Amino acid sequence: MIRPEVKALLIRWREALIGLGVAALGLYWALVSFGILEWLGWAFVVAGLALIVTGIQRGRFRRAGDGPGIVTVREGRVAYMGPEAGGIMDMDSLLRLELHPDGPSWVLIGEDGSRLTIPADARGADSLFDLFAALPGLGLDRLLHHLAHPGAAPQALWSRGHKQLR
Question: Which of 8, 95, 124, 126 is deepest in the core (most CB within 10 A)?
């Protein structure tokens, strides 16, 4: 019986916590063993640290998931089904990514001018992290900063053909 707040916290930071466990196990093996197990321990430490770094990024991106609508991602195609609006967009046709302060919400703008607005706390919106991370030139630290501090005006985070928007 875990309290809902604690369960939500553990789920949000699960990758970082797993990385911490892997690194701790690796450090134990590296310090008390000899030979191949010692080297395997150091490899676990490195892998655990990598998991911690990516887990912290994912944890900062992940929201409660109790917002309006559902997001699904399949083979580079984002689908959002909300109570009042929704749509589908292929990431290959993505021209621009914006973060709007209302909610906050992601706005994906396609080559044909279509717009897909997705609340950052919609169920499944955490699956957008991998898609956004794959956008060339998009700085994840900048994206996470704007998500934590959305400001008053919409922020253009990425545009095709530009190295990085400021």
Answer: 126
